[in-house]
């Protein structure tokens, strides 16, 4: 099944750019951050995953359809 996502600008992208086996989780999967990195720019603070997600170093995400996911780092617990 070849699904696509329409971005905020109207561009149609495949839900997964994943070409390896086994396939990575799709952009709408709960474990979407487990997808392989296809481009990494640590000097700019972001990586592109093969499912089309931009993952930022603060753990925020930009999904292929243009939605943003707020940073979700674990909160440190005082001992």
UniProtKB/TrEMBL annotation:
Residues 1-11 have a biased composition (Low complexity). Residues 1-42 are annotated as: Disordered. This is Uncharacterized protein. It comes from Streptomyces coelicolor (strain ATCC BAA-471 / A3(2) / M145).
């Amino acid at each position: 099944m070849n699904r696509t996502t329409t971005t905020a600008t109207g561009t149609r992208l495949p839900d997964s750019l994943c070409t390896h086996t086994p396939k990575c989780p799709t952009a709408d999967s709960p474990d979407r951050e487990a997808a392989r990195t296809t481009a990494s720019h640590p000097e700019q603070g972001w990586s592109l995953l093969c499912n089309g997600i931009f993952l930022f170093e603060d753990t925020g995400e930009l999904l292929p359809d243009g939605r943003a996911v707020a940073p979700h780092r674990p909160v440190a617990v005082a001992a």
